[in-house]
Design a protein that fits this description.
Helix content is about 75%, strand content about 0%. The chain is mostly helical and about 80 residues long.
């Protein structure tokens, strides 16, 4: 994996939306590449700042994982 490809995937990696194979490739690359580690750390810091800002702006909002029934309904709706 090249640094360019890794860095293009970092947001997806941080938000855990990569498939297993791609996530494994990015993880391996990050283990060996200080430049991409620094890029990941910078994005992670931005992610944390955005989360804090959202918590402050929307303090009354709470997010709950979908129940099994909600997950089934969304699967049916998407079909």
């Amino acid at each position: 994996m090249t640094c360019n490809h890794c860095q293009e995937q970092l947001l997806h990696y941080l938000y855990d939306v990569l498939d297993d194979a791609e996530r494994a490739q990015v993880t391996r690359h990050l283990e060996e590449c200080p430049m991409c580690q620094a890029a990941r750390n910078g994005l992670r810091a931005q992610q944390e700042l955005l989360a804090e800002a959202a918590k402050e702006s929307f303090a009354a909002v709470s997010f709950q994982p979908p129940t099994e029934r909600q997950a089934d309904c969304s699967t049916i709706a998407a079909s």
